[in-house]
């Protein structure tokens, strides 16, 4: 694998995470528990889609095959996607959506912090812009997880269920392969495993405040970031997201 | 517009106070929440602002219907930003209504159990992607017709909310027009979508202004109070006059064979919408009434544990802070 091939894979991983999570969050539009949450969820989705345009735009450039961010988003099939499984699982109730957001935001903010000092200036520039938005996402999702975890009996129970359901998807964030090795060697991105300690410290603090118990299991589903095995859910998501582009090839929108 | 057929309340206040109040309005003064106001003025405004706020909220649904199917990342971002703006408009308007002594929760309950209405337009479906362009262009366009003059309405908080809202609405309208223009200039299939959207949404857009109000006593009172600034027919004509040249520029066919320039009047003639359809929609029999209201009710019901949880947490936090002091 050449350095550019590895870089393109890395950029797809970043962009596919924001694309798929942005899509999931946008499914809430008009259905949130309070108006302020509708606004906040739309805002989060909007930021994530904006970040997708940057990551996938750069991925297309590095691939050098004339593909735009839109081509990559709308014209690839499931096996081409490189997002974490965590972001493609269905929304579930509001608690699960916010728990997923919090787990992702925690990882994302740490990752972007490292990427801001990337040896690749283009990567560093995108990370600098995104990290401001993501710091805000994390503040919000963590506050909500704390509020609901330490709320009523019902909200506590639902948040614990959400954490139990999602925890097996956390491990994938910290798995490394030859793409990551190449990125570390080039000084472009950190080794995913090296983020674990910061993540654990942050999540332990948030879940502690939320009075929630982190499951005592190191098991982790995997296959999203390598593309080897996604969940069944991703295909349905793409069916909806890509429909117009697929049904009317070549049209300009 | 987003508040239709708002019945104004008769008022039984002291005639002297009423005259002084009317004089303030006639002088162009703004009425602020702490000022004396006739009970009818207050009630009519609650109804009108509440209906307007509900329309912003329910209006998220037909547009949200396409967010997950937006054809490009840019279009998805534009649509998300628009729907977020609409929710924000709902928020400003609920805040304006709250200054009149009604809470957002009370207004929400009245929407959910059908005691309060929202604009008839949001009971129509969005069936193809061009509808999203058409909604921005026609629906936001019609809303602006009404909201621009309402920036000068007599009630201060409402007027200030309208000033904020109008800036964003005209942006929505331009973006909607741009989206439908792309389609009108696109492939034959895209052009067909654009024409279909225009044909379906034209008359419902005209209905947004409400039936002709030339015989309505209610609207006379509201106009005297400057909470209604123009007659429905004036605004509808203005909308038609503005929109017909835009349709021609797009190269689409006119959605109504009755549209013709009338040299004598200096306006376009057009066919009046089918008002029996309008009254059906108002009564709850529009194509989407049941689904829209069910969606809002489910969101509220399913979100109860979230609202309760966050409230309980806030109370615990306050109690802990109190105990520590
Ligand atoms: Fe609006
Ligand atoms: Fe709007």
Describe what you observe in this structure.
The complex is a heterodimer of chains A (253) and B (325). By secondary structure, chain A is an all-alpha fold. Chain A has helices at residues 3-26, 35-63, 69-74, 85-88, 94-115, 121-149, 153-166, 178-185, 196-209, 233-241, 243-247. With 325 residues, chain B is mainly alpha-helical. Chain B has 13 helices and 2 strands, in the order H-H-H-H-H-H-H-H-H-H-E-E-H-H-H. Chain B has a two-stranded antiparallel sheet with strand order 1-2. In chain B, helix 6 (130-150) runs parallel beside helix 8 (188-207), helix 6 runs antiparallel to helix 10 and helix 7 (156-184) packs antiparallel against helix 8. The longest helix of chain B has 29 residues, at 156-184. Chain B is globular and about 70 Å long. At the A-B interface, helix 1, helix 2, helix 3, helix 6 and helix 7 of A face helix 3, helix 4, helix 7, helix 12 and helix 13 of B. The site of one fe (ii) ion has 4 residues of chain B, from helix 7.
Biggest pleated sheet of chain A:
none
Mean pLDDT over the residues of chain B: 94
CATH architecture grouping of chain A: Up-down Bundle
Query: Would you state the CATH class of chain A?
Result: Mainly Alpha
- Determine the number of helices of chain A (DSSP H or I, runs of at least 4 residues): 11
The CATH topology annotation of chain A reads as Ferritin
Residues in helices of chain B, as a percent range? 55-70%
> Can you count the beta strands of chain B?
2
The shape of chain B is globular
Instruction: Please bin the fraction of helical residues of chain A.
Output: 55-70%
For the termini of chain A, the CA-CA separation is 36 Å
User: What is the H/E string of chain B?
Assistant: HHHHHHHHHHEEHHH
**Which chains share the greatest interface?**
A-B, 52 and 52 residues
What's the story with the biggest beta sheet of chain B? 2 strands, antiparallel
Shape label of chain A? globular
SSE pattern of chain A, N- to C-terminal = HHHHHHHHHHH
Compute the separation of the termini of chain B in Å. Answer: 52 Å
- The named CATH superfamily of chain A: Ferritin, core subunit, four-helix bundle
SS field, number of helical segments of chain B: 13
């Amino acid at each position: 694998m050449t350095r550019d091939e590895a870089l393109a894979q890395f950029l797809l991983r970043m962009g596919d995470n924001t694309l798929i999570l942005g899509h999931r969050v946008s499914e809430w539009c008009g259905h949130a528990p309070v108006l302020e949450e509708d606004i906040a969820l739309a805002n989060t989705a909007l930021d994530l889609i904006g970040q997708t345009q940057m990551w996938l735009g750069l991925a297309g450039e590095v691939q050098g095959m004339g593909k735009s961010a839109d081509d990559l988003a709308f014209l690839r099939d499931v096996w081409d996607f490189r997002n974490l499984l965590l972001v493609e699982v269905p929304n579930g109730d509001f608690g699960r959506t916010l728990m997923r957001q919090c787990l992702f935001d925690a990882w994302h903010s740490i990752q972007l912090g490292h990427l801001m000092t990337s040896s690749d200036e283009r990567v560093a520039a995108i990370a600098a812009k995104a990290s401001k938005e993501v710091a805000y996402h994390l503040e919000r999702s963590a506050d909500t997880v704390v509020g609901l975890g330490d709320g009523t009996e019902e909200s506590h129970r639902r948040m614990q269920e959400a954490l139990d359901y999602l925890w097996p998807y956390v491990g994938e964030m910290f798995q490394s392969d030859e793409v990551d090795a190449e990125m570390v060697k080039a000084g472009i991105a950190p080794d995913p495993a090296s983020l674990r300690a910061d993540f654990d410290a942050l999540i332990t603090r948030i879940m502690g405040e939320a009075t929630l118990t982190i499951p005592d299991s190191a098991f982790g589903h995997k296959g999203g970031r390598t593309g080897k095995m996604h969940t069944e859910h991703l295909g349905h998501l793409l069916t909806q997201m890509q429909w117009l582009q697929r049904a009317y090839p070549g049209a300009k929108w | 517009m987003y508040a239709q057929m708002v019945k104004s309340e008769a008022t039984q206040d002291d005639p002297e106070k009423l005259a002084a109040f009317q004089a303030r309005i006639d002088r162009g003064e703004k009425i602020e929440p702490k000022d004396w106001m006739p009970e009818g003025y207050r009630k009519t405004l609650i109804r009108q602002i509440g209906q307007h706020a509900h329309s912003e909220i329910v209006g998220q649904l037909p547009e949200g219907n396409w967010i997950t199917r937006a054809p490009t990342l840019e279009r998805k971002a534009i649509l998300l930003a628009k729907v977020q703006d609409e929710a924000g408009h709902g928020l400003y308007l609920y805040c304006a209504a709250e200054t009149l002594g009604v809470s957002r929760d009370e207004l929400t309950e009245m929407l959910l159990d059908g005691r309060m209405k929202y604009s008839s337009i949001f009971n129509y479906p969005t069936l193809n992607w061009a509808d999203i362009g058409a909604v921005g262009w026609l629906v936001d366009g019609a809303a602006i017709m009404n909201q621009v003059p309402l920036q000068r309405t007599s009630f201060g908080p409402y007027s200030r909310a309208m000033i904020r809202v109008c800036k964003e609405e005209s942006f929505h309208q331009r973006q909607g027009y741009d989206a439908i223009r792309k389609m009108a200039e696109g492939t034959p299939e895209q052009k067909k979508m654009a024409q279909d959207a225009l044909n379906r949404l034209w008359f419902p857009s005209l209905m947004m202004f409400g039936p002709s109000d030339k015989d309505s006593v209610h609207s006379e009172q509201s106009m005297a109070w400057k909470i209604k600034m123009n007659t429905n027919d004036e605004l509808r004509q203005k909308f038609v006059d503005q929109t017909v040249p835009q349709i021609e520029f797009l190269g689409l066919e006119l959605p109504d064979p009755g549209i013709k320039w009338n040299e004598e009047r200096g306006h376009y003639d057009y066919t009046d919408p089918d008002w029996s359809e309008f009254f059906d929609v108002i009564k709850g029999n529009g194509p989407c009434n049941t689904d829209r209201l069910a969606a809002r009710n489910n969101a509220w019901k399913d979100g109860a544990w979230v609202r309760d949880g966050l409230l309980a947490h806030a109370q615990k936090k306050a109690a802990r802070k109190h105990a520590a002091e």
